[in-house]
Amino acid sequence: MKIRIYNARIITMAGGVDIIEGELHTDGDKISFAGSSSDAKKVCEGTIWDREIDACGNVIMPGFKDAHTHSAMTFLRSYADDLPLQEWLNNRVFPMEAKLTQDDVYWCSRLAIMEYLTSGITANFDMYMKNEANAKASVESGFRTVLCGSINDFGGTVKEIEDEYNRFNNYDKLLSYQLGFHAEYTTNRDILEEMAALAEKYKAPVYTHNSETKLEVEGCIERYGKTPTAFLDSIGMFNYGGGGFHCVYMTDEDLDICKSKKLWVVTNPASNVKLASGIAPIKKMLDMGIGLAIGTDGPASNNCLDMFREMFLTTALQKVSIPDASAVDANDVLHMATVGGALSMGLTDCDTIEAGKYADIIMIDLKQPNMQPLNNITKNIVYSGSKQNVKMTMVAGNILYEDGKFNIGAEPEEIYAKANESIERMKAE
User: Fold this and answer.
1) Alpha carbon of 346 to those of 7, 113, 239: distances in Å?
2) pLDDT tens, 290-305?
3) Among 110, 294, 341, 357, which residue's Cβ finds the most Cβ atoms within 10 Å?
């Protein structure tokens, strides 16, 4: 489709947070123009549009990227709350996950996608199981997903990871795949060394949960005499980059490795505070120039897939923990949630609003009380923004969510019913 959005405030995120008053045009799945109204007249004269949208002065910006999540865990939302992490994981989460079917993952992933869209999230970095169902849910919804390998001692083989890497990187334009494993503490050394060899074979980055808790770090030091970051680096895991999810307990050596190996750190503040895991040293990482992105983690530990809450917590927790009210500027956080997220996932064509990039964009409604007055629009988005401000979410040129309505190939009530059927069956088994 050829879509023209005019009378817009455009935050391209290309080199900063400056605002352009003008238009954005799409042609199929790509952005064909983004700039001033006067320049737009020169390039679109005579164009026949499939749709023209008056933005009414609202913001058009790149969609948020949820750089770490477990979509299908919507089935455990509010099922295993108010428990210590290890008890939560071993006694509540793992036993229920063992009952999951492909159909469960499909419908619970579709439910998560609906929630991503309401939060202005246009792509997710999804680490979970039964990826065939996950891939089908994303593509049939028109949503962009980067799948991440999740092998561990409880399931999967390195050969299966390699097969998925080749299959899902040639599956659909909306889908890609990165090498990954669950965590050092759930994966034995033989498998880890095989994963490092696989990364070497494909010259590919590797991603994993890293240093989420003190117990995890202490256990790795007992096993190998090194922190998880240092140990994994020592066996060649990060020779081609990659990243860590959480990264709460990081030594100076760990951070130096992140910088030298160009590892991405994906912070998950809501999950980390809810599970009492701690607060990642984001200010220190930012000052060192380490690549930063933001994820929600899964809906079993968060419990919602809301980038606005994550952005606020990313900056607010740094301010109170240092303490320094000037720590981690809101505009840096906006960069983490958009450009940082995209680049951490390998989505180099979805990071900014520029001609030739994929049309993965959102419209932020400024005609809401929480966005007025317009003293500073980008800081309003981070400090006072919420899901109520997401007026439209577009992925690959298709409007999937607009004014509270979904266009994802299935009715919301059907998705809700199927997700509830899944959890009720598992609780009864």
Assistant:
1) 32, 20, 16
2) 999 999 999 998 999 9
3) 341
